[in-house]
């Protein structure tokens, strides 16, 4: 009876989360029914009936939780963080498995081994394809190519500074529209996700497809694609690999992804052709400095198939940039409401930084918001987006530094959240200390927190303090990956989070609705951590907001 009650409670929590993530609210009941029906039809299967699709079976490591494949997945769905914590506590310096044989968790002592492996041996793309079970609307352009990742790293990231004025102008226009009834005398309650969803996707569009930054229909298409894709990946994870193709066909989230991609192609393919026509006809034509143009330039051929592939690559970047950035901003806002003592120091830092030099927002100004960097990193550490990271598939067997061999086909990850909560690595890890990273600069050498941390690095002409940057990857901060498996879009996310949060801090007061003071608990689905997306935050325009025209 306890198990049944627990499952019902979990579904009650998950249902509104998935409903929020779905582009179509009418799909939720059909989706849950499809999942439960397929799960019941498959429930008579046992581990011995599963084909050997992973190299993990060839690797001897303890399984944390049930070994039966279906029970293991269901148990991991319900208790993912607890299973990972138990595995890390018991096997900190050795391998273990969770979700049956699905995931081989690698101890952090092998981080350097993995960080230098080329994609021919350790493939992140293959892991993404597996995650989305080869859903054509997502994985077709990922399986054999990394063009979108290369363009983000080599073209979009170096040009981020040039986009800052446009993004700030956009925020100045649209943030008041998202909070239309807010005045200096009146608090207005807004669901946390509702506030940031459109701001994030609109900001992404300004950098991805400049012409469509104010196009409401396109905004809806981008949101539908990214949120349906995110929900689809979560729903598919409960099924065994041999059943995922059937499950993918039954889930309305997959239908939603396909429909959004078709709308995107109808809108963008003519735009791509018009850009090419204008460039061919006008010697003075200036190419737009946006991701779509970079993908067009990198794609090569001009035929219809390539145009469709260009659109799909762009939408895959929306998937990478949308849900993760939205959730990160919501988590920061929730922590600001839970720890209001940080609001004024962070606000004053932003104001002082923006008044320096020529004044206003710039890439350097954002880099100089060190206290905000520290606060964002602490939020990320305690409410990490996922308990596991560095997800990759071994494409060729790999021999590690001590002779351990990872077999071909192994699906590996690392317990990134537990590493960030390890008291041997992070002092007093359970405490929220928004200035932990900021103050750590004054205390070099404490524990392992500073080990192997270069003091400075250079990026696009900026001088950054590596030890506290939100985008820094290190042996203790693996949320964005590490080495060759680092997230190429983390600088884009950093810029958007800082711009939205700092604009809110400068112009608005904020607090939990109804006088609440306790932070709402996160929801976990497998190892994925999602804030309470229904939480209401109250905003009130500051009396001096008009004085800061940055």
Automatic annotation (TrEMBL):
Pfam families: p450 (PF00067). The chain crosses the membrane at residues 21-42. SUPFAM superfamilies: Cytochrome P450. Heme binds at residue 487. CDD domains: CYP503A1-like (cd11041). Its cofactor is heme. Keywords: Heme, Iron, Membrane, Metal-binding, Monooxygenase, Oxidoreductase, Transmembrane, Transmembrane helix. One of its GO terms (molecular function) is oxidoreductase activity, acting on paired donors, with incorporation or reduction of molecular oxygen. InterPro entries: Cyt_P450, Cyt_P450_E_grp-IV, Cyt_P450_sf. PANTHER family: CYTOCHROME P450, P450, PUTATIVE (EUROFUNG)-RELATED. Belongs to the cytochrome P450 family. This is Phoma betae P450 monooxygenase No.2. It comes from Beauveria brongniartii RCEF 3172.
